[in-house]
Amino acid sequence: MDLALERLADRMHVVSLPLVTRFRGVEVREVALFSGEAGWGEWSPFLEYPPEEAARWLRAALEDADLERPAAVRDRIPVNATLPAVGPDAVAGVLARYDGCRTVKVKVAERGQTLDDDVARVAEVRALLPDARIRVDANGGWNIDEAEHAVRALERFDLEYVEQPCATVPELAELRMRVHRLAIPIAADESVRKAEDPLLVARAGAADVLVVKAQPLGGVRSALAIVAEAGLPAVVSSALDSSVGLSMGAALAGAMPSLPYDCGLGTGALLAADVAEPLVPVAGSIPVVRVTPTPELLATHQASPERTAAWRARLAAAHPHL
Ligand SMILES: O=C(O)CCC(=O)C1=CC=C[C@@H](O)[C@@H]1C(=O)O
Ligand SMILES: [Mg+2]
């Protein structure tokens, strides 16, 4: 792997992809793509992520571009629909974008909203899809009491699991004990991907399920090793990537020895534009394939010179931490 900064900068293509609906405060997703010896890799840490964290995402992108992927044990990945924190009226329209998905992940605890908003959104999903598996993701937005209250308020909708209800590992552990009787699994996402030690949450017995993402965990190989060592069931999820990044997620999910849950890799449906034929759910799954951007789409969605320069600066800042 050639990791010299100048050559990495030469290989980098930055694109700006509009979303169909606002998601985690983002309306346009910027991603950097690298071509390499094995294919294309995606580097798309969110803009507020510091260089050290962004470097782990960069390692993942470069590994995926330059090395062959681990062997897959399945060729399609069942995926969930991901529902941003929209109002009930908008739910049906967003869900219609996910062809054949039997599982819905609903964003909750959005800043500026209330538990009533969450209940209304989840109730709408349940009304539209009586047989769906429904999981919620709070992105650590609740304290323990709020989380307990919310879980009890949402329990009647039959939840598959609650993802990152609280921000810290001790809070997750405490909540897990408090809601033990409800038998709703607790999943850890940020406590894995943003933690100094991604295994701590498993060791602390603070979660039942791990959410794993290839980019933040430093690549497919490293994510596979973390899951193996944690010994917990894992859900592979996206980082709101373009189809190139989604294909890296699919490679991770494809290589997992066991895949008990639908994966959060249907988010291509939230993009209004992509760099290739979009990797979106068809009959509830996406294929395990390499995705190669087309020169036309790379050109059409190329970021402005200012934004490209900003990404070059990010690359230079992350590079020493590789
Ligand atoms: O898991 C999914 O269904 C889709 C991916 C997803 O929800 C996320 C992608 C990117 C950033 C995160 O805020 C968010 C998550 O928290 O899981
Ligand atoms: Mg999450």
Describe the structure concisely for a colleague.
This protein has 322 residues and is α/β, with parallel strands linked by helices.
Describe the structure.
- This protein is of the alpha/beta class.
- It folds into two domains: about 5-70 and about 295-320, Enolase-like, domain 1 (2-Layer Sandwich), CATH 3.30.390.10; about 75-295, Enolase-like C-terminal domain (TIM Barrel), CATH 3.20.20.
- Helix content is about 35%, strand content about 20%.
- The chain contains twelve helices and twelve strands.
- It has helices spanning about 5-10, 50-65, 90-95, 115-130, 145-155, 170-180, 190-195, 200-205, 220-230, 245-255, 295-300, 305-320; strands at about 10-25, 25-35, 40-45, 75-80, 80-85, 105, 135, 160-165, 185-190, 210, 235, 285.
- Helix 9 links the parallel strand 10 (about 210) and strand 11.
- It starts with a helix and ends with a helix.
- The model has no long low-confidence stretch (mean pLDDT about 95).
- Ligand 164 binds near residues 82, 189, 237, 238 and 267.
- Ligand 164 binds near residues 137, 237 and 239.
Task: Indicate the topology.
Layout: H1 5-11, E1 12-23, E2 26-35, E3 40-43, H2 51-66, E4 76-78, E5 81-83, H3 88-95, E6 103-107, H4 115-128, E7 133-137, H5 144-154, E8 159-163, H6 169-178, E9 186-188, H7 190-193, H8 200-203, E10 209-212, H9 220-230, E11 234-236, H10 243-255, E12 285-287, H11 295-300, H12 305-318
Parallel strand pairs: 5-6, 6-7, 7-8, 8-9, 9-10, 10-11
Antiparallel strand pairs: 1-2, 2-3, 4-12
Helix pairs in contact: 2-12, 3-4, 5-6, 9-10
This protein binds ligand 164 and magnesium ion.
